[in-house]
Amino acid sequence: MASPHIGIIGGGIAGATAALHFADLGLQVSIFEQGASLVDGPPICHLHAGGNLYREISQQQCVQLLKESIETVKLYKHTMNVRPTVIAVPTQDKGQPEDLLPRLQVIKQAYQSLVEQDASNQVLGDPQRYFKLYSQQELEALAQCDVPEVDSLTDQSLDEWMIPFAKSVDLNTLKFPVVLVQEYGLSVFRLSATVNLALAQLPNCQIYTNTQVIGVQPKDKQWVINYKSNNKHSTELPEAITVDYLINASGYQTGVVDDWVKAPRSRLVEFKAAYVTHWQEGNALWPEVIFHGERGTPQGMAQLTPYPDGYFQLHGMTEDITLFEDGIAHSTDESSQPKLPEYLVNKIIHGWSKEQQTIRTNKAIKHMAQFIPSFASATLGGKPLFGAQQIPGTDITLRAASVSFAGDNYARMEIVKASSALEAAQQIEQQMRECGFYDELHLIKQNISSQLTIEQVIEKACTLAEQRSYPTALAKVGGVK
Q1: What is the pTM of this model?
Q2: What residue numbers bound the domain in which 205 lies?
Q3: Alpha helix (H) ranges present in 169-220?
Q4: 3-class DSSP state for residue 466?
Q5: Domain edge (last residue) among 392, 407, 429
Q6: Quick check: helix, strand or coil at residue 29?
Q7: What is the mean pLDDT of residues 151-168?
Q8: Do residues 368 and 304 lie in contact, with contact meaning Cβ atoms separated by under 8 Å?
């Protein structure tokens, strides 16, 4: 086949990354998204380069996430917030800080070897400075230092990042050492801006936003995609296009398309939420902070993600903050699409009431204040960030996942983490080559996204944040400028 037409259902990070990947190669792409713009999902906190947040995943998953994250940053070069992450184990937690060290060494060595193979892989700072440990005495000494000026921090800074932490955290609530690791932030708004700007420059990519796909049928080794406009005033009848290869990137609704094309698949879907807060005292440059805890218990992990202008995103891995009592749904023998409770689906479609926002945001603030007492003065900073996450199989702790195939011309993107999207697209390209979908051994990659300037990306990102009713601080560059 000279040049296949690729149809992508879903314009989130997975689908949009695939569209950019294949359109960059010069292939014809049609992508369908029910929202107003591509990559319209909830903000991501960090790259997950090395999976440092997850004590429960294997070292193999950690190294996979590291490699995928490095490739993602190279594709989306204006999306990173260069600021480290602090990982602390509370005294109330069963875990020990020492348990984190063997894995940190493995990730550091993997990063070092990737940089030795290719210097352009050095996107997370110097591998020799990948992490640093702090004793209680060292933190008490840092607490006496002045908070550094925002513009004085560089990607070489380590101790300087710990000063706001040392001054504000109740160190008596922690076990030692505390770890600082080069786990950087990722701006979903700048990622969205990159995708929307880049694809708009590729005439071989047709973008159908505000569009509902209503069915898919096989036809002579191709697929017919039926769709209609979401415009309430539209009187248009449903339309259809025919594609040679179908990519299902429908996120938590991936099972709907599986059912249409009769390709059963086992999966979980989990509804989760994070909360946007504003903290007057938080104008210093903070690292991201993770206080470990046991998922689903009142002592669940507490996570503080900093943005510019005193905004912080909070997670609390308890059932009355980030998790929901009935927030996990399973596929069945009858359907590949897990069914979430109606009230959670309504949140996804219609948003939250002000009362719901306030109650859970205040619980998130209180959860964080047990470690950072002065954080109790934080206030509601915006609407919650929420959505449903698909996880292939039955292991709710799985974090490194990419793609699965059914037949020669149907792929499901099943990423759990944003950084896995490019790897999934590359695996689909490989499978298409093996199945003879294009004759050219070497298509010329244009790398349109690499030609965008940081100014273009920030301007578009701030516009997207405003359109989606989020503070523009979430779109600005956080951390080292």
Answers
A1: 0.92
A2: 5-42+190-264+395-474
A3: 188-200
A4: helix
A5: 392
A6: strand
A7: 91
A8: yes
